[in-house]
Amino acid sequence: YGFPELSGEFRDKISKGKRIAVPGCYATGFISLVYPLIQSGILPRDYPVATFAMSGYSGAGRKAIAVYESKDRAPEFDAPREYALSQQHKHLKEMTKITGLQRTPLFSPMVCDYYSGMIVTLPLYTDLLNGKPSLQEVQEKLAAFYEGEPFIQVMPLGSEDETNGFLAGNARSGWGGLEIFVTGNEDRILLSSRFDNLGKGASGAAIQCMNLMLGFEDRDGWGREEGTEFIRFRNCSVRKMMNNNFEIRTMTIEDYQGVHDLWMTIKGFAIRSIDDSKEGVASFLKRNPTTSVV
């Protein structure tokens, strides 16, 4: 199972394995919160876990991406949409199996009108946890569990105040790591895992596992390192060395047309969007104002 941060045993099996199952995106966020709490003895295995999550629409697949990026889409796609209401989401099995929970969690995911990025949140009553731990104790347990891991950051208490108490789902789009926030109070705690569903939640994790299988460091070739910035345009990633002469700016319709024309010269390449008209591109850029061009 391709989640090396969970333990030395997981990491060793990945490095020696031939077939690695990379975690699902929602499963990544959920397991990053639940697994260490069970291993540390804080969270009972029979706790009645419920979790909710939001994701950018890129996680919904090609057909859904085409719908979200269509200028003729229905108004309901402008709002977050809850789904998997029958409690049969495909990630539930690995969420239960890997964490060791004795009962299947209640899971409420939502797909939202932004391209990529995800938050998975776990609410907990402290009087149902072993020892009724404080907010600080839970944060310290998680920080100690992931100490030294380059792609998982347990944020200091109060970090959400830097964004006026809000956590944006797309704030880590284009980054290969995962942040954990511990919020709430001494009676009710919220644990939130924020990451890119296309990064640590998908292909980024696959590259990390491939690196381990080949004997490289986790972040070789793709992670954020000192002096670099990780930038994503749609599904194409580049690394910008800060000491090189690059310009990064918000993408315009003219930029898009230039990139489109270049892509069309590549044999076998296909644009996934169903609407590459000027109006369609303008609509996409309006809904995705952080799209950049290098």
Describe this structure in words.
The protein has 294 residues and is α+β, with helices and mostly antiparallel strands. Helices cover 29% and strands 20% of the residues. It has helices at 8-16, 25-39, 62-68, 92-99, 135-145, 199-213, 253-263, 278-287, and strands spanning 50-56, 81-82, 106-112, 118-125, 152-154, 178-184, 188-195, 228-233, 236-241, 249-250, 292-293. Helix 1 packs across helix 6 and helix 2 packs parallel to helix 4 (92-99). The longest helix is centred in the N-terminal third of the chain and has 15 residues, at 25-39. It is globular and about 60 Å long. It starts with 7 loop residues before the first helix and ends with a strand.
Helix content: 25-40%
Q: Outline the biggest β-sheet.
A: 7 strands, mixed
% residues in beta strands? 15-25%
Instruction: Give average pLDDT, whole number.
Output: 85
SSE series: HHEHEHEEHEEEHEEEHHE
Shape designation: globular
How many helices? 8
Ends: how far apart? 35 Å
Q: Which residues form runs of ≥5 with pLDDT under 50? A: 223-245
- Strand pairing plus helix content: what structural class? alpha+beta
C-alpha-based Rg, rounded: 20 Å
Q: Which strands sit side by side, in order, in the main sheet?
A: 2-3-1-4-7-6-5
How many β-strands, per DSSP?
A: 11
